[in-house]
Design brief:
The chain has no helices and 22 strands. With about 210 residues, the chain is mostly beta strands. A four-stranded antiparallel β-sheet has the order 7-8-9-10, with no helix packed on it. Strands 15-16-17-18 form a four-stranded antiparallel β-sheet, with no helix packed on it. β4 and β5 form a beta hairpin. The chain is globular, with a radius of gyration of 22 Å. It starts with a strand and ends in a 10-residue tail after the last strand. The relative contact order is 0.07. The model has no long low-confidence stretch (mean pLDDT about 90).
Length: about 210
């Protein structure tokens, strides 16, 4: 890639990637899951946890390992995804928009359309704001829990808006008190409100009727 080379070693039955210059100087040690060039000035480096950070051509970290994925480039721009939010980078790997938006659409003529996160506000009987949170939807799930949806994924909150179950499930439906049918990827199981698996995620589908799965 220009004056740089992505190199890899085979260690413990898996490839580990790094970056060197043409003088064989190590810029990024060969210990990462993948390294992908973003133009000639930036590299997307993925660690073993599946998180991505941006590095310069000199091997200096520009961001922390917080990015979940990077889209394909369109009109020399790409969308970065981080914690169910979206941002924007250019082909040189420069961050043009921080990942704080609900949705970004890259249009022609150097235009970008963005949608801000939906904001939910809780008020008391005197119309004073008690608390607020960013989400697409919020619904009561039980007397003490709320179902939250963000970017098509679901999780659970308590009445103080503290996370009980991370927003990571494609489906989350109350089964019986304290248990929820959840879908992770293409498989379905049952979890507790504290995100512990009560029924393993090995089923294509699950349905409940009269308290019976």
């Amino acid at each position: 890639n220009g004056l740089r080379a992505v190199v890899f070693n085979l260690a413990q039955a898996k490839y580990q990637y790094g970056l060197i210059d043409l003088s064989n100087r190590i810029l990024i040690p060969a210990k990462y899951r993948s390294i992908n060039p973003l133009g000639t000035l930036r590299y997307a480096v993925e660690n073993d946890k599946g998180k991505i950070a941006l590095f310069s051509e000199e091997g200096e970290a520009i961001t922390d390992f917080e990015i979940d994925s990077v889209s394909r480039f369109k009109y020399s721009k790409a969308i970065i995804y981080e914690n169910l939010k979206q941002g924007l980078i250019d082909r040189d790997g420069q961050i043009r928009l921080k990942p704080i938006y609900r949705d970004i659409k890259i249009e022609a003529d150097d235009k970008v359309a963005v949608q801000a996160l939906h904001e939910w506000v809780f008020i008391d009987t005197k119309n004073n704001i008690v608390s607020q949170i960013s989400a697409d939807e919020i619904h009561p799930a039980s007397e003490n829990t709320m179902l939250i949806k963000q970017s098509g994924m679901y999780g659970l909150l308590d009445n103080q808006l503290q996370v009980l179950t991370p927003i990571q499930y494609g489906r989350l439906e109350r089964y019986i008190p304290g248990l929820y049918i959840a879908r992770a990827g293409k498989k379905t199981g049952v979890i507790t409100i504290n995100n512990t698996a009560a029924v393993p995620f090995k089923y294509d589908s699950l349905a409940a009727e009269n308290g019976i799965l």
